[in-house]
Amino acid sequence: MKTAHPATPRQDLSAQIAEAIRDAIVEGRMITGERLPSEAELSEQFGVSRSTVREALKRLAAQSLIRTQRGAFGGAFVNRLSFEAAYSQHITTSTLLLSMNAVSFETACEARYTLERACAPLAAHRRTTGSLATMRTEIARQSQPDLSDEAFCASDVTLHRALVDAAQNPVLSYQLAGAVEAMQPLMNMITFTARSRGEIVALHTALTDALEHQDAQAADTALHRLEAYTLTLGRDVMASRARNATKRTPPSSSG
Amino acid sequence: MKTAHPATPRQDLSAQIAEAIRDAIVEGRMITGERLPSEAELSEQFGVSRSTVREALKRLAAQSLIRTQRGAFGGAFVNRLSFEAAYSQHITTSTLLLSMNAVSFETACEARYTLERACAPLAAHRRTTGSLATMRTEIARQSQPDLSDEAFCASDVTLHRALVDAAQNPVLSYQLAGAVEAMQPLMNMITFTARSRGEIVALHTALTDALEHQDAQAADTALHRLEAYTLTLGRDVMASRARNATKRTPPSSSG
DNA sequence: GCCCTTATGAATGTCAGACAATTAAAGGTC
DNA sequence: GACCTTTAATTGTCTGACATTCATAAGGGC
Prior knowledge:
By secondary structure, the first copy, chain A, is mainly alpha-helical. Chain A contains 10 helices and 2 strands; from the N terminus they run αααββααααααα.
């Protein structure tokens, strides 16, 4: 009996329905702002219960594909995927991807700085006084000796985001957001000494100066140095962590 | 009773619960492979019905944060976010972002080629015979005159993905996937003439040759030319589309 | 003792029906 | 016309039930 349609019974009904609606949205058969049929209508159309339809809709809502509104003339509407929502999704996914897949500090660092250097020429050309001001503000913050390591990292992210945004290309900003923000948890594992902070602040200043003078080459150099320096800091931390882990390993075989 | 915490009633219960569990995962309080409490237990813990818990779990499943398994010793497990799953999510989001936000062809094109040029030095240094072979294969495919425009674009994407993958940095590949793949729908709107195809194939060949010779500078140049050429093709199409749209506009005021 | 079959129980998947909460629009009052 | 009330449609939540799946335990045949 089941041989009649064994093609895709391995998926939940709610997943199948969500996929059907998602396809309709992605392929443009439903446009932004359009209202989906009510849950009752959908359950009739798909021949399932309302609960199943609701689970499907929640799946779509989790991807910001639809938004729901209660009350008369409420319902589920195809969402205009804002850059903001896309940013936060991308950042969450990138962060998890790095934390769950044992991506080395080197790999993540290389990806981040490679992408940032790509932005540098555009940023040098198009930077505004606003983006420069943001970067200077963060540099000032990073110079405060009583700043916690976490706050230092957060400020670092803000500065680099300002660099990326200075390129004035929202698509680029979106793509870079993941690479820059996802590094923060890795950076948070590093204890920044006064000396290392000074070095970083100096490089941040060189970078900002380069943008101010619209000197793409100097910005590229500053980013190269920053990458190399970050890498040495990260390597030191990872190495000492590895040593500690080895120490804690039981000397005899387990059990 | 409920007056005790009216702070955040603007969100659904299922959204709140999903957020609570998501935070636990992102912050590492739950690790990959760990089993969540059963739906019955969760509904008791959060003081809500099982349906509400299920909607929350579906939201998390939609983001590939958890996977569920039926049967004895089944349940919801914290998912290891694979690069593969992250790729497809990122691509879907990027594609929608572009189609829904009236991003100009210029902006998308600039972002894509800026990012690809960032990969070029690494790709030139690390390219394998495998990545070169993939690129040559796609070039051969693109040279077939009877290839449809859609297939030509798909082949273009494959070739550029090979370029990105040649950098041998999975994080970079992941971040770039969105930029490269999301361009395809925009590219699909272009009708490629025999002449334009020839030009693109020539530039693809130059790019591949550059990688083979590990000549980062030549690869950069080829990508710059490719960007410029793609841009002119895109501009032509957009301009003619704009003209047609104007023609179709009713000559008098509507109504 | 060993293997195959069968129960068992725990868990998710689905359904049906009910009620609460919300909200825009229609209708009524002044 | 401005303001208030009613109304109907829709989502949000709860309850209880049954179906389905699946690892393990129990049982029977040899």
